[in-house]
Write the structure tokens for this entry.
Amino acid sequence: MAEQILVVDDEPNMLRLLKTILMDKTGYEVATTNNPLEVSKMLQEKPYDVVVTDLKMPLVDGMDLIDIIKKIDSLLPIIIITAYGTLETAEEAVQKGAYDFITKPFRKETILITIKRALEWKKMQKELAALKKQ
């Protein structure tokens, strides 16, 4: 089964770009939403392997979204993308539970490598959890 990626961004053009990048030759299945308030419902309806989200959005920003997602699935890797990246913001995001932080503009290869690493990390976390149960 293909890996499931959820992309959250309030800009429709960025959603289209990320969906195109992520579906091109990767085999990922990509769902998108421009409404961060829908994320909780989407995560409860279907399991995702990675969430890619913008930092600055109206209503719910990326930092708040980290908290919402971690309450539903503590092992779900979250990748923050933003045009407003600072070292302090990146540190805060990672401390809250983000897997990684990418600044815009980004290269296609950067997002693809980051998602691949996040998927590998999630797989290792599941294997570790299974070993602890033995």
